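$ fold --in a.seq
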Amino acid sequence: MTADVPHRTIASRATDRPGDASPFALGLLLRRAHWHAAAVMTEALRPLGIELRHFAVLIVLIDRGPTVQRDLAVATGSDKAGIMRVVDDLERRGLAARKAVSGDRRVRAVEITPQGVELFDAAHAAAEPLAERLVAELGPGEPAQLVDLLTRFTHPAGDET
């Protein structure tokens, strides 16, 4: 009976180990790289009393200025409830404030406060030595090359997001 079944090639199975040739290899490597980078950046933020989810919102506020919560959710990959909790945390700490949006009494924009800007700057200073540790295994010029490749990968030509 098995002689009637055509021979099929078994696809490479995803492992996320070096040399993985599966169609999932790139995604798995990017996921592992994200976990590694997130762990290092979490270490940098911990003494400042914030988490990566808080810092992600501060990044958007620094970049875009006052931003409505639904746009913060989209920009950070969060959901409505999650972004509300993060903004609540930032407000309690005096790092961000909700402001009324002219023309729509129901909508509030979130704005970074001067204390939020100070913390944002402190986070960058704290992250500097840890960021260097992230790329310590790379050779001369390779950290810049990695940033260039990831930038082109995540922001294809013509993509302004």
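$ fold --in b.seq
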Amino acid sequence: MVRLPLTPGEVERGQRLGALLRRARGARSILETALDAHVSPETLRKIETGRVATPAFPTIAAIADVLGLSLDAVWAEINPPKPHADPTPTRERIAS
């Protein structure tokens, strides 16, 4: 299987995820956290450093659970709101 290169957005999201997990882990060791989440310490290390920018959902769910993070909080942290167009209809949009 050939993996496509990650987009810059995916790389940034992976870096935000890693930073979030490191902050949430605090003084707790990588080893202790990884073992409690049933993932390898190397996997957790790679996620925290951004080397694995798109980890599997069950992996993130297990780590988040161990760290007391809700998946909603993880999602909100790694996917900041995107600027969007004004939802107010304009005359041009109505006319078309």
